[in-house]
Write a structure and sequence with these properties.
About 75% of the residues lie in helices and about 10% in strands. By secondary structure, the protein is mainly α.
């Protein structure tokens, strides 16, 4: 698997989880926050938030900065923009595939309809 494919897989896996999306939303609202502060906004424990932040960090969507004993996390806007573009490209590719599948299905349906009409008109 290519490095780009692995990166896209990590990205999609990171944003597939609804709790991680809520963590991202909370960080976007706050600007930066600790796992403890984020846990106060979410229906999960601080440990769960820390695990979600680790996944988001590996995907490059957030970045942690140590300030004393705390680690404050913030969204990496440039990476979020790249993630949005990647997802838009994937969506466009799937749209193209679905259009091709629709064309094939319609062609098969037309052919079957022609064959049925021929069968109906045979003596």
């Amino acid at each position: 698997m290519s490095a780009v494919a692995t990166e896209v897989d990590e990205l999609l896996s990171a944003v597939a989880d609804p709790t991680r999306r809520r963590v991202l939303d909370a960080l976007l609202d706050r600007g930066a926050a600790t796992a403890t502060a984020l846990a106060g906004d979410l229906p999960v424990t601080r440990q769960a938030v820390a695990k979600h932040l680790a996944v988001l960090d590996r995907a490059g969507l957030v970045e942690g900065t140590r300030q004393g004993r705390e680690v404050r996390y913030a969204v990496r806007p440039q990476r979020l923009g790249a993630a949005t573009q990647s997802m838009a490209q994937i969506a466009a590719e799937w749209d193209a595939r679905l259009v091709a599948i629709k064309r094939i299905a319609e062609s098969v349906a037309r052919r079957q309809a022609r064959e049925r009409r021929r069968e109906e008109h045979r003596p």
